[in-house]
Amino acid sequence: MYHHGGRGLPGRCCRTQWAPRYGRAWAGLEIPLPAACAPDAAMIIPVRCFTCGKIVGNKWEAYLGLLQAEYTEGDALDALGLKRYCCRRMLLAHVDLIEKLLNYAPLEK
After folding, report:
1. pTM, to two decimals
2. Which Gene3D superfamilies match (predicted)?
């Protein structure tokens, strides 16, 4: 789905079809807090499943808690209600890159 600039297919472009359904987080992105606001540098987990759009961002801490309580990965995902494999992969395949990204300062102009 590409943006058509208001021409061509009304109601079929990316802005009119996806934005009302998913809002600003339709791509599963979450804006990180600056380091001064978040001294613990929390995880940046995608808000929604990339494939089906189910909210998965609020399940990350519960998932980690279940893993620490000796649940297997599959049992923890079942307990959280993640049945579809597209949603399950969002938690299983997540890699925490925020610690590496915080090492680089933005360029100053």
Report:
1. 0.55
2. Homeodomain-like (1.10.10.60)
